[in-house]
Amino acid sequence: MHSPTPFSRQTAAEADDAVDPQVSDALAAMMATARRRAARDGDRQIDTAHLLHSLLESDSSTWDLLDGGSPQVGKLLGYLVQRSIGYGLRWQSALEDSGAVPAVSEQPGGVPGWSPSARAALELAGERARRRGREEAEGIDLFAGVVADRECRGVEVLRRAGVDVPRLARRLGVASRQE
In what ranges is there compositional bias, type Polar residues (predicted)? Predict the structure, then answer.
């Protein structure tokens, strides 16, 4: 069964081309999963909650940073799945705007199909990887990029699941973009 989505093949391809190509194969796969999830859910943009969902499903190194371990990961995935089916956290079909970055992704440098917060998380992931001496960003770099925006949807999910976000940010070595 085919359902209509707000993403055309051209828009998805343009978004992928606009994203820094210096990502690991695993991170590229996570980003593709986040894009499919957003399209399936009827969301107009990939946001940080989509990215967080993909990271938690695919990158166990993010689990190691959560003090609550597997139970906390289960709770996080529960919130994210509820969102996917239109229950619980009510962001579906709304644009992510944390206030940390310009609200309109179509501004110069914006990426169609990506929320400004998600794009900023990807940019920070690339910067973090370069600081670590790596050519390609990995899942842990993207996780740090999400956690750095204390007002994004991904961090809201983390907080609701009981994650100590400031402590997590310190462990990841990231400063908040709001500070």
Answer: 1-11
